[in-house]
Amino acid sequence: MRLLCFAIALCFITSCKGQKKSRSKSLEDRISRIENGLQSNLRVQYGDSISIQYYNIEDRMKALNIPGISIAVMNNGVIEWSKGYGMANTSEYRKVTINTLFQAGSISKPIAATRALQLVEEGQLNLDSNVNHFLRSWKVPENEFTTKEKVTLRRLLNHSAGLTVHGFPGYSTNDTIPSVVDILNGKGNTDPVRVFREPGEKVGYSGGGYTIMQLMITDIEKKNFAEILQEEVLNPLGMLSSTYENPLPKTYHNIAAAGYKADGSQVPGKWHTYPEMAAAGLWTTPSQLLQWAKTIQETFQIQKDGFLKTHTVNEMIQDYGNNQGMGPYVVEHLFGHGGSDEGFVSDLRIWKEHPISVAIMVNSDNGNDIIQEVFLSIAKEYNLPGIYHRSRIYKKQSRELRARYEGVYQFSEDAKSKVIIKDNGLEFTEGLVKNPILLLPETDTLFFSAKSGLYFEFVFENGVVTNLKVAGYEGKKVE
To answer: What is the pTM assigned to this prediction?
Structure first.
């Protein structure tokens, strides 16, 4: 009998080991398909054929001059896999690992917003009251735009407060780091944060608004912002090696990635310092970002109170216009946030209907292309909605027709760009761009970047080109 029991137990153990090995092999195959299935984000149709390119992740990193990348995927509440590629610091020959810290850029915002929403739940803040009721060390200056409507916490979080200062460049090693009040008053390296249109009128992204939120939190709690977020958000969520502390303490330097510019050169001093911590100051890893994603996603999907209450999360992931929630962006199938600091690009995407979230962090200004390509590969592998290629159709134009667009376009007092005929399209150079962009024709008025697919729209009057619109800018043809 004992022998029989031993035989049964042995079979069970062997079976479990076999299943574990099989699952491990299955996951390895999945990761391999993702790594070798990177697709170009831009798909161009030439006649009846569509141009589709596939890449290996390491080959793509070399082509884009990217030192390092870190990826983590959470599935059903656990990190299914995480992996680092390339170098965290090329001069120190230090590789990226799953524990390497990256600057999260604007992904800092939804994490920081979590503390503000906790204070709302505790009754210390109110989403719809004038923020000047809670600010102590500084006040939002009143002007003609605040006569009827006021700046509120809700409007700070969803970027509808009508405030200036889109983002922050950070401070290099030799710079003097200003206080938050000095930043708000324009005594740092950005303009003062002021109301320039009626609060609530429309959504307009403002890192300045999140800096006001940062000051509100410290005024109320009378403690350092990084300390507050560590104690109240990061540590409770298991983000134990993440920090908002700026400058980055030396104890983190040996696990922090250095940032790299588009030309491959290292950011002087390795990285910039962001006293605008709520807007851009978080240091973290993809796996730790997914701990925050997990608690918000689970509360949203199960509709049961968690780290935040259900009604708070529902308001957080509401679209207040222009796909903007109270912290994260919100689209049909996803919510999340992207981030860009000097030498770093990151993206966090969380699915609404699927128990999956993904974070990708890159230590290069060139990170956007490879991040989107990795997301496309992951979406294909996991059969996820909401990640789409950028599709364009090439329509051949004669040289004579393309000659209509040649000239000089004045976009601002000191920004003139040229358009000349190039190959089978046009070339857009100088002024708004550092490097020339090849433009291909799609219609009589629309051209697109052969690299990114970005549209360039030519404006005609009486059959003559007068203006050029691109990425929110408009230039008048002056030559």
So the answer is: 0.88
